[in-house]
Write the structure tokens for this entry.
Amino acid sequence: MLETRHLSIRFGGHVAVNRVSCVFTPGTLTAIVGPNGAGKTTYFNLISGQLPASEGQVLLDGMDITRLGAPQRTRRGLGRAFQLTQLFAQLSVQENVRLAVQARHGGGLNCWRVWLDRQDWLEETREILAETQLWPQRDALAASLPHGDQRKLEVAMLMALDPRVYLFDEPTAGMSADDAPVVLDLIRRLKTRRDRTILLVEHKMDVLRELADRIVVLHQGALVADGEPASVMASPLVQQAYLGVAPVQEAA
Ligand SMILES: Nc1ncnc2c1ncn2[C@@H]1O[C@H](COP(=O)(O)OP(=O)(O)OP(=O)(O)O)[C@@H](O)[C@H]1O
């Protein structure tokens, strides 16, 4: 179980995430929505350890991980889709996924470790490449991939790590109409496992309607709505905050 308690961060005088308290349980896909600049990505960065909290706490299975760095949080089961800068640009697609499989099995991210005797790890790598439809590109350098394939590779590496908590930040942004369904299908299948906690920042309404079990709405860094998707999306507060069509009145 993942929990944030009064989690906040200030950049100078600007409070980008403002005392957000939320509990995320396994078997639930929670979508985090809100207009541009609402603090969604910053909230993810606070959870994953990319940014230090100004106040508040992050707890994973009851343990306070607020002061841990991102790699230590990853080791404890918190997984964020790799960003382009974290891919090994000069290694092939297959080598990148292999390294993530190796890391999950406790082998660390050591490129030089001998792999070839671990047929089970290689088999796992092949399966993930097939599932993400990256098999044909397996020998291409990560740096040479088109944007959509790089994003698929980020997701493939996350699947290879198989964390207990998955954080997806707009996983299909910039993907083609052919690539987006591949990633959505992986998330759909992940949901059926029931033992994984999934957080998803997503703007696309059709994706939210299909995948979200719960929707949390951020507006100007604060949590303004939280609940079952149909009722959350229907509330006037959310219509305004989410669509950004009018200033949100203070909640009573
Ligand atoms: N490192 C930073 N330094 C200063 N301000 C920042 C920093 N990171 C984020 N912000 C500010 O914090 C606010 C929240 O940004 P964030 O990217 O989290 O919003 P978002 O909801 O993810 O938006 P979008 O939907 O456009 O991705 C914005 O006003 C942004 O300018």
Q: What stands out?
A: The radius of gyration is 18 Å. Residues 11, 16, 34, 36-42 surround adenosine-5'-triphosphate (CB under 6 Å).
